[in-house]
């Protein structure tokens, strides 16, 4: 029995090592008219699976953390004191009408699961269950009559985050290790007088 538990613990550890987060392609989950943050502005903007809103919606949501405008100006959330904008590298290539970004989070920086791109009073919201760290978006299909972009907004994980594969593997490996440790513990005999 101990050999089986040892094999289970080894399998859990191997899964934990093999399950490193992979960068998948973010999915377009919504397109709508207007600015993603509406009248509430950047500081009160939250992303959800069904769109964005200016605070007020119940059920968590992912707050905005950083916004870059095409003129180079930025907005940074006061919710995350570690974010100063240097974590983001955003480039627009006019020849191909593409917008690319990389996000290199530092210690204490939030995980991104949503971002929105706005141009000509239209917004497109993207989501990925895995942490978003980079992306290249072709803008012509999104804004066929208006080349370029107005701004891009990134949103924190929020209350509805899905654990990444590495988190699940680590949890399973921990359970396997606990089971192994419990099986190896010596039995204590109890006597009654």
Search tags:
2 helices, three-stranded antiparallel β-sheet, 2 domains, 11 strands, 193 residues, elongated, alpha+beta, eight-stranded antiparallel β-sheet
Q: How would you describe this protein?
A:
The protein is an alpha+beta fold and 193 residues long. It contains two helices and eleven strands, in the order αβββββββββββα. Strands 1, 2, 3, 4, 5, 8, 9 and 11 form an eight-stranded antiparallel β-sheet that branches. A hairpin with a 2-residue loop joins strand 2 (45-48) and strand 3 (51-54). Helix 1 runs antiparallel to helix 2 (165-184).
Write the layout of secondary structure elements.
Elements: H1 2-18, E1 27-33, E2 45-48, E3 51-54, E4 62-69, E5 74-76, E6 88-93, E7 98-103, E8 112-119, E9 122-127, E10 134-138, E11 151-156, H2 165-184
Antiparallel strand pairs: 1-9, 2-3, 2-4, 4-5, 4-11, 6-7, 7-10, 8-9, 8-11
Helix pairs in contact: 1-2
Q: Concise description?
A:
The protein has helices at residues 2-18, 165-184, and strands spanning 27-33, 45-48, 51-54, 62-69, 74-76, 88-93, 98-103, 112-119, 122-127, 134-138, 151-156.
């Amino acid at each position: 029995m101990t050999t089986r538990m040892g094999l289970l613990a080894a399998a859990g550890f191997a899964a934990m090592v093999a399950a490193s987060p992979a960068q998948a392609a973010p999915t377009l989950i919504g397109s709508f008219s207007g600015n993603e943050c509406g009248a509430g502005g950047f500081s009160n903007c939250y992303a959800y699976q069904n769109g964005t809103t200016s605070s007020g919606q119940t059920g968590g949501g992912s707050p905005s953390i950083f916004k870059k405008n095409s003129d180079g100006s930025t907005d940074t959330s006061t919710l995350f004191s570690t974010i100063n904008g240097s974590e983001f590298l955003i480039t627009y290539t006019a020849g191909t009408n593409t917008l690319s970004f990389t996000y290199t989070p530092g210690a204490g920086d939030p995980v991104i699961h949503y971002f929105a791109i706005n141009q000509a009073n239209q917004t497109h919201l993207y989501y990925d269950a895995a942490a978003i760290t980079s992306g290249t978006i072709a803008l012509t299909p999104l804004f066929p009559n208006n080349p370029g972009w107005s701004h891009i907004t990134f949103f924190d994980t929020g209350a509805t985050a899905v654990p990444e594969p590495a988190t699940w593997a680590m949890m399973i490996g921990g359970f396997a290790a606990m089971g192994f440790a419990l099986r190896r513990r010596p039995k204590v005999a109890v006597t009654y007088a």
